[in-house]
Amino acid sequence: MKVAIVHERLTEIAGSENVVSELSRQWPDAPVTIPIVDARVDAPFRSRVQTGVLSSAYRTARYRSYAPLLPLVPTWLRHRDFGTAEAVIVSHHFAAAASVHAAAPRPTIVYVHSPARWAWSKAMRAEESSSLPGRLALDVLSALAIRTELAAAPKITSIVANSTAVAQRIREHWNCEAQVVHPPVNVAFYTPEGAGPRGDYFLLPGRLVSYKRPDVAIRAAVQAGVKLVVAGDGRDAAHCRKLAAGADVTFLGRVSDDELRRLYRHARAMVMPGEEDFGITPVEAMACGTPVIALGVGGALDSVVDGVTGTFVTGADDAEVVANFADTFASFDTSGYDPARIRRHAEQFSPEIFRRNMVEVVAQALETRRDG
């Protein structure tokens, strides 16, 4: 089966790039079309990337910001040539779905990390920019994202969501149904072997940005008087450090994969205080046999089993959520969780299972197109 793969941008390695890496592993001859590429970013599929003028402009600007190029992405993708590919698999965040116009009449499989959340949510846009010009620019870009998604959705052969929560957003925003295939997690690397005794800290990994709500975890740790280790960095780092002043909160900044694995293995629990589309870090923690304390919304509902691999925290407003996280921290008992059982649960999110599920999705899409 000859396929082509489309991804929006290669400017970092994160969850969506891992999805593309596994797709490229399953289809080793597939070209990977990406409009915006930072040539300094190394990825397993780097040698197969096909790009063009937008990447050239990004390089000329010395990779300072790709944001000014985003309005041009849908048009660039609508004019791609996918040659002899029998199907096109698209990794979509904001505009990649525009490529289905160029892919026709081939079957198209669009793996949706989420409909552009910031585009559909005015509140999220307000968090992303505090200046009037920034808000106006995001409003314009949001209108383009929504137009792009709604124009592409009816033309997609098969829509795949990375979680049940994302499938629900697709239903609400696109008026389409989606099947769920959870993203791949490197459970072969994140393991409990040699874990040894648990430490005395809770672990907050990931980027320190507002939508991930690191402030909730920090406020709760301060309120509960427990030790919190923060492994990550981001534009809210200074604010987070200010919130933690005088408390037992350690900021490590960005850490290596080896160090992150060590932190997972020895933490009392990993903490996810924000709503994620899916959330890779909880599965990494569980693969190490470590329970998860998560906000009971979004992708966590797919990955965490309440009372078995972790526990959920809810609340009617921020103050209640912080108080409930603090209560959970103060009373948390690791002896109530079986690391081996937690590990077995995490194994269902392996790259091998992801690839097998995607092969089935592509085969179904081809069959659907033939029957149609």
Secondary structural class: alpha/beta
Residue stretches low in confidence (pLDDT < 50, at least 5 long) are none
Fourth-tier CATH superfamily name of the largest domain = Glycogen Phosphorylase B
Largest sheet: 7 strands, parallel
Number of helices: 16
CATH class value of the largest domain: Alpha Beta
Rg from Cα: 21 Å
Form type: globular
The CATH architecture of the largest domain can be named as 3-Layer(aba) Sandwich
Give the termini distance in whole angstroms: 19 Å
- Write the CATH fold name of the largest domain: Rossmann fold
Strands, total number: 15
Number of domains: 2
Chain-averaged pLDDT: 94
Residues in helices, as a percent range: 40-55%
- How much of the sequence lies in strands comes to 5-15%
Spatial order of the strands in the main sheet?
5-3-1-6-7-8-9
Explain this structure:
This protein is of the alpha/beta class and 372 residues long. The chain folds into two domains: 3-184 and 350-371, Glycogen Phosphorylase B (Rossmann fold); 201-348, Glycogen Phosphorylase B (Rossmann fold, 3-Layer(aba) Sandwich). 42% of the residues lie in helices and 15% in strands. The strands form three sheets. A seven-stranded parallel sheet has the order 5-3-1-6-7-8-9. It has a six-stranded parallel sheet with strand order 12-11-10-13-14-15, with helices on both faces. A two-stranded parallel sheet has the order 2-4. α12 (280-287) links the parallel β13 and β14 (292-295). α12 packs across α15 (339-346). The longest helix has 21 residues, at 132-152. The radius of gyration is 21 Å and the shape is globular. 46% of the residues are buried. The mean pLDDT is 94.
